[in-house]
């Protein structure tokens, strides 16, 4: 029984759709003042609504970005956000209908990938998404954090005022990123949302190396004093940290660990291989507080996606991919160091399009997923070759909230 219809959102329908989204996330219905502030960042373009009797009951949205894949190529990717269904209309298939429409639209636009951050891990697997990057939350205990003599050094760090930062940081990000698999471009519509919140509400420090500005960090202090610990130094909370090279990364971490009246630096969503711990004389001064899933990736155009990334030296492997939602992706692909193409050869490994997303950026090794029955092994010799082909030198990382 479906009494609702899904279609692109029309001009003038943004505000009720925004309110559905806000309430689905336990937020308020917009006041005129709040809507005036949010309208620019909530265009009708790229949004789909589910309507029942003329009323919006569900919404999904996306922004057009480019996402970096192993080898350095970037691919058009829909960054899916703004997903919500009215609490009185859930579990009737509204999201399922919205996702089908949105994925068909991505394919029609020639977008090769779609990616999102999930509020709950049970939602998106059924639509072909799977975890393709993860992040870790770090705590650096300032009192124990001494940099090794051989840790990269040089360059300098300066604080930048808010108004200057709102112009400088988007330009700097565009120049230095995306520079590793999983990172995405940040289009103007993203900055409309982030300029005031992310940049405007944080301290901004910029690193300058031999070739000019090459890294930045946005952070704010959090008071930790209490009756028990009246002299506890603040926690510096890192909101956004990007560097073009290890020298700039080291310079920014050194700066953060040197700020006065601070007991610890907390940095959520850092790359799994962030090297800060290895730069310290006491690596345990850098604690890992948590590990979170970050990018949920969906391969919208499997042949183009597979052909676009690079592969490491190994014998060719044939993958049989199954994609019930976008059946044009189903089929066999020969993956080799010189590239990936469709083939009629028999497959050594068979997997769903969601599992393919888990190995695509290099986050998981095929053999580990085969051991969990996520990959069917038809030719055992194919498994170590697939591990070698898909391996990457750096851990994939997104580093952009949306
Ligand atoms: C998540 C949400 C959009 C799902 O919408 P929905 O219209 O209820 O989803 P559907 O009815 O199409 O569900 C499809 C399937 O997914 C399951 N599912 C959907 N959301 C789920 C959830 N949060 N937890 C567990 N299962 C969920 C449904 O049970 C259903 O399974 P079935 O096909 O086996 O019956 C909706 O619950 C919501 O708005 N939640 C709050 C806001 C939110 O978390 N948004 C996502 C931001 S990333």
Mind explaining what this structure looks like?
- The protein has helices spanning about 15-25, 30-40, 95-110, 160-175, 190-200, 245-255, 300-310, 355-360, 365-370, 380-390; strands spanning about 5-10, 45-50, 55-70, 75-85, 115, 130, 135-140, 155-160, 205-210, 210-220, 235-245, 260-270, 285-295, 295-300, 315-320, 330-335, 340, 350, 375.
- The chain is of the alpha+beta class.
- It has 3 domains: about 5-115, Gcn5-related N-acetyltransferase (GNAT) (Aminopeptidase), CATH 3.40.630; about 135-295, Gcn5-related N-acetyltransferase (GNAT) (Aminopeptidase), CATH 3.40.630.30; about 300-390, 2-Layer Sandwich (Nonspecific Lipid-transfer Protein, Chain A), CATH 3.30.1050.
- Strands 1-2-3-4-5-14-6 form a 7-stranded mixed β-sheet.
- α3 (about 95-110) links the parallel β4 and β5.
- α4 (about 160-175) crosses α5.
- It binds coenzyme A.
- Coenzyme A (COA) binds near residues 25, 85, 93, 95 and 119.
- Homohexamer; trimer of dimers.
- Belongs to the acetyltransferase Eis family.
- This is GNAT family N-acetyltransferase.
- Keywords: Acyltransferase, Transferase.
